[in-house]
Amino acid sequence: MFKNLCVAHRGFSGKAPENTLAAVRMAIALPYVRWMEIDVQLSKDGVPVVIHDYSLDRTTNGHGKVKDMNWEQMKRLDAGSWKGRAFRGEKMPSLEEVLDLSKGRLHLNIELKTVGNVYPGIEKAVINLISSKGMRDEVVLTSFEAGALQRVKEVDPRVSTGLIFDSRSGDPARLVHELGCSFLSISFERLNPNLAKLLTEQGVKVMAWTVDKAKEMRRLADMHSDIMICTNRPDVWGDTFLGV
Questions:
Q1: Is the peptide bond before 210 cis (omega within 30 degrees of 0)?
Q2: Where are the coiled-coil regions (predicted)?
């Protein structure tokens, strides 16, 4: 029996605008979706906001950098029209809004979108928020940035962390161990059976991204039953493994 958990990538982003409450609600509506991946940055005034790109231009009707706009301005932007007329007026959410909607329903893989010191204090801001909601056990904080993961542990060593890895070289198993991570987020093209086996035996959760085709989902399931499958199309996951 397969055990490969379904992780909704930026919510149900195959059908709804990514990283919006619409996408979160569509993911929650599927009973087999247990996890969701989202991206978090900071507004100019320090509010954790849910958006993937460093620029507002692709997924909202705003322009410029996320870090240069206050939350009061940002929350008025249209973050849905680019996906289709049905989502016109959908807003860009704060992390607090997503946490409130997800609590008790979905575990969250929150990617800290930061490079170097572009968002000073993002780790503390996010940790304070998840702690105030009592959601420390429902969340893992992930990043490409080793420094960000180290700062998370400095703020609160009880918070679970995960390394995001997409390099053609390097040793992700060694890096995960050195950084004290309990989670590896890795491109499905970079994952192999030996790495999956090694990490799961060490108690590290392995999530493969971004997998939208049934053939690749089955290949990952055959590789190891504990690999979490992150997808824009959780409905394809359901069709593949549950026949729903």
A1: yes
A2: none
Is the whole-model pTM more than 0.90? yes
Contacts of residue 93, defined as CB under 8 A and 6 or more positions apart, other chains included, come to: 19, 20, 21, 24, 49, 50
Annotated active-site residue 63? The verdict is no
Q: Which of 9, 107, 177, 224 is catalytic?
A: 9
Residue-wise pLDDT tens digits, 92-143: 999 999 999 999 999 999 999 999 889 999 999 999 999 999 999 999 999 9
The total number of residues written for the chain in this structure: 244
Contacts of 235 (CB under 8 A, 6+ apart): 12, 14, 15, 30
Render the burial of 115-138: b for 16+ CB within 10 Å, e for the rest: eeeebeebbebbbebbeebebeeb
| pLDDT tens-digit series, residues 209-243 | 999 999 999 999 999 999 999 999 999 999 999 98
The strand pair at 228-231 and 107-112 is best described as unpaired
Burial 186-219 (b: 16+ CB within 10 A, else e): bbbeebeeebbeebbeeebbbbbbbbbeeebbee
Other beta carbons less than 10 A from residue 29's beta carbon? 10
**107 in catalytic set:** no
Helices (H), the chain: 21-28, 71-74, 95-102, 122-132, 146-155, 172-178, 193-201, 214-223, 234-241
Residue 224's SS3 state is coil
Domain boundaries, the chain: 6-241
What dotted CATH number matches 6-241?
3.20.20.190
